[in-house]
Amino acid sequence: MRFLSLILANASRGRARLAFTLGSVVVAFLLLGLMLPVLRVFDSRVDFADANRLMVLNKASMMRPLPINYKDRIAELDNVEEVGHFTFFGAAYQSGSNQIPAIVTEPENFPVMVEEVEFRDADALSNWQADPSSIAVGRDLANKHGWKIGDLVPLHSSIYNRSDGNPVWTFRVGAIFDGAAEDSVTDSVVIPYEYFNNERIKGEDTVGWFAVRIADANKAEATGKAIDVLFENSPNETATTTERAFAKSFLNQVGDFKTLIGATLILVFWTLILITANAQMQSIRERFGDFAVMRILGFRKRHITRIILSESLLTMFSGGIIGMAIAGIAVLIVSAKAEALLSLLSLDWRDWLIGAGMMIATGVIVATIPAILAARQNIIDGLAETL
């Protein structure tokens, strides 16, 4: 108890410094709590359980297209109910920084394959499906830019140029779709494949990937293997996976997020160590006289070292638990509202265990040098600090 009272008394001496130090610790462990679930998702295996939609990609790379004639061959397989194809368009509106999620697909198949959206205006849906040069726009995106049915919208593609070399494609808004659920995000554009395929300068009769709806989710893995066997040893072999794994593959293609996250965490905790160690050093220097008096009263060097280490660990655990708790709430909110890959996010006991280990390791590292300095300080020099 005497150590605890000393620790709390010392903490109250520099409240402003303690507040800033605790703030740094909270932020560091908040980032750790947010990043650990993301790293675990990247390391998760492909799980075919209860998957009623499969994604068929080019085995070599997701960025490489597949022949559109694969669709009919996939549709002939057992357990396959419906097959659709999609192509990433790479659209920007008005400026290159204003990126818009845009996919190319068959309008007739889109409402069937994508259950997350719905067209409440049947006439608008029919008009869009009948007009190859029109697009369907999500309600959120239409409201954001003030688009209405009939408006002309120029979209700049970073991937596909028109046959005349122009990267700007002008479409008419043919329909506006809503989300099937209240919290659905509708910020995308859907472009008809036939018009796109005829107008683009390269890649004719190819698609980005296929989406396959299956009858029995319990046979998802077997169906995926059957699809890949179908195109084995062909110029464009396939890799069939689930939607969640597809999202994971997409992120991996965009960049090495695991390395980026790891490097970020290393820099964050290195900065945390520098900040907290500096604060601890200042606190110890101010208390050299106190430590000398304690030595005279019978405290040994190990007792002083224990006090310094306890103060450092108390700071780390106080801020660390708060930061991890905030991260847990944030991750819970995101996973509850997200779909596919992000719905896997969770802050579980493994993350808390890693967090506790980091609190201990950081606390020990931060306390090491101040503890050594305090232990080496002789009583005479320490008493001189009080004069």
Automatic annotation (TrEMBL):
Record InterPro entries: ABC-4/HrtB_transporter, ABC3_permease_C, MacB_PCD
Keyword Transmembrane: yes
Membrane-related topology note: Multi-pass membrane protein
Keywords, alphabetical: Cell membrane, Membrane, Transmembrane, Transmembrane helix
Location of the ABC3 transporter permease C-terminal domain: 265-379
GO cellular component terms given for this protein: plasma membrane
Principal location: membrane
Cellular localization per UniProt: Cell membrane
Every MacB-like periplasmic core domain range: 29-228
The protein's name: FtsX-like permease family protein
TM ranges: 20-39, 259-277, 307-333, 353-375
Tagged with keyword Membrane: yes
Pfam families hit by this protein: FtsX, MacB_PCD
